[in-house]
Amino acid sequence: MRWVVLSACFFVLHMARAEWQVVQIDGRDYVTLASIAPFYGLGAPAATGPKKFTSSGGGRSIQVELGSREAMIDGVRHWLSFPARPGDGGACISRVDLSRTVDPALRPEKVAGLRAFRTVVLDAGHGGHDNGAASRFGYEKAFTLDTVRRLRKRLESAGLRVVQTRNSDTFIDLEARPRVANKTPASIFVSIHYNCADWKPSANGIETYSIPPLGAPPTGQDNVMARDRLPELGHALEPVNFTLANTMQHALVGKLGVEDRGVKRARYVVLKDAATPAILIEGGFLTNPGDAARIANPAWRESYAAAIAAGILEYKKLAEQGTKPREKKEW
Ligand SMILES: [Zn+2]
Predict the structure, then answer these.
(1) What is the 3-state secondary structure (H, E, C) of 20-41?
(2) What is the pTM of this model?
(3) Who has the most CB within 10 Å: 99, 174, 276, 287?
């Protein structure tokens, strides 16, 4: 390992005055948690488990685990692009994760490219011959459409315009869905899905996706593949997409108290082809008995729609007024 202290850090990260300690690990730049903590007003990292380090202060916190991509930031689960590594007696995170996940999570109001919107394009996942996942209560395609209709009412009563990619049980190509948002000026795109894991019925909870940083692997993939280096439309707004996803996950787990599966990254067609801010929400597992019963309950879907609407409105305040979004514990 070769240690370099960079004082001209704006060159490295386009931010900050502090001196980051940068180390090369497997040809990738990493920074020590200890060296970035003061910039965010966080205290010195402390060991909080066999491989865990936590840095907190001023009501904010970040926790990483050596060898793991899982991190907790302000109480919400995140999935880093690369595992945290040991270094300088503590933990290091990759430069990509600092600039693309930790920084926008801790300083959302500083994210470049946030802009006002007046239309929300709602995408009910699946439809027609594509049933999506299923529980004993019904198909994903029906639950997503019902959720979108409830969400539409809530957004419209908050003064937003809503466009739906489908409003009936019809099949729509994946590629056609983000195109609806791309031709709708001043819009954001929110795709609604429910999850399945037939091999693991215990899997439950909610996760929110945005596109991975360019050159970084999706959450479910260990190594960087050639396709991960291909720029897509969605990469132009990648930090904005992440910020929308993070704001949403805080609202969902804060308001609903469900299992927090985290803010994840995936190269889904609907995310990579979107030229507007775009996220995809998996609102629970149809293969989990508890989640499936909740999702089948219209009253729960109404609460869920209310939570998504709250997340969208919180993001709107951030994008238009620079108001820091509420954290999980504040909902
Ligand atoms: Zn789905």
Answers:
(1) EEEEEECCEEEEEHHHHHHHHC
(2) 0.95
(3) 276
